[in-house]
Amino acid sequence: MKAGLRQSMAWLHTWSGLLLGWLLLAMFVTGTSAYFREEISLWMAPELHHSQPSPDTPALAWAALNAKAPDAKSWDIQLPEARSPVAQLRWQPDRPQAEDGGRRRGEQAVMDAGSGELLSPRASRGGDFLYRFHFELYGVPRIWARWLICVATMFMLVAIVSGVITHKKIFKDFFTFRPGKGQRSWLDSHNATAVLALPFHFMITYSGLLIFMVMLMPWGMNAAYEDGWRGFFQDVFPREEPAAEGGAAMPMVDIVPLVARARDTFEQPVRRISVDWPNRDNAVIRVSTAKDPHITDQRRGGNPTLVFNGGTGELLETRPGDEAVPGAFRVYNLLVNLHLARFADPTVRWLFFLFGVGGTAMVATGMLLWVSKRTQQLRGKAPGAALRLVNGLNIASLTGLLGALAAYFAANRLLPVELAARESWEIRVFFLTWLLALVHALLRPDRRGWIEQLAAITVLWAALPLLNVATTDSHLFSATAWRTGALAGFDVVCLLMAATGGYALWRVVRKQPVRGRGPLPQRRTAEDGA
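That's the PepSY domain-containing protein sequence above. Prediction below.
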């Protein structure tokens, strides 16, 4: 009975991983990159690289908004932090046409934190495109894309659980690696990458489903609230609404003393300033500081905040930012924050990134193992159409996707800054490159296809730092890049990607294909898969 269960789990593990494995691979690659989406976005906006925060930044942002939108309904200032050297200015115009499809349409600008100059970075979706693609794909209706992602995630969860059941010697196998053994080598690689971060793989999969619980299981909220899940969230996370109308015109107090008071009160740097009805007699100013991140923090709000009267500077309220959160929401926040690494410092973010790379390798080696096993079973015969299709899709989903990523970054540097709909053209380059790789892989779904695409991605990733040197002054060999470590780190990762591609290319070229000889007889076990 035990052997029958393990064999059944092996079959389930194989096919749950294969059927949506190509989508899972894309999710892992883009999701892993999203741990550094702010750094990617910064690299893709070289116009922002010279911004240097100073003690005068709040006053400069205050003056910029007074000049740009003195009669707005609201202001919001995001001050620079470690991952963003610029100040983000947003405001809500006080006019009826600010409503767009039921959603408020605000305006925004980016300010040099040292000079107060409003900057005009090139149009780009940056790391946000990769982050959104991870769970919404692109060009697909949002609801259908999210359902497809959830189905793939459920398949991933089934593959993880069935894989643990199948491999009864899973921890022993972790320390076993037999290089140059074809199918056995891929199996050892698959086992090692799966066991190395097994808790992470389970957490990232389960928490990914939990994030979409409102969509997947809305019945309880629909039964308890007249407005369904909207009523639930309004009850649990009520929004603080400003006064319905602005008062009479009245100049506001200087922001600098309010910032200093908030900083001294909470002993943390100020990160955000928001204003309701600026330059009116009913203006309200909120100054929020940073806080030590906690793994159960809420997604929005919760930062220590002082609330002031905008006209007089009188302190209206002190919010310590440690409001009690029910236990159930702490558990939910825990899993969501783990999935998105919101609490993480750079060291932990790099650790999550490496675990994500391990997850990508786990899915990739599983797909390659499936092809390797069936190729050996051919005993020298020509592969059929189905096997050629799977191998071609493997090439396109692995090397093709990595090549598309490199092309996306290259397009950011090569496309004219004044190009209309420039951010859309960057994304088009990504998909056109991926489509080209798919066509090539389907035409050459064999060793030659792997060699040619590995050579292409090696050249593309190696070219990115050189392209950066040719087009910007914030490259690997400049002080600007090292002053903002993320910029130098991006180029270093590109070189590591090129080195990895080059090593894989060398291994594939070096290994001679075996023809006319079948595999040696061996005992079939559940660990070998279906």
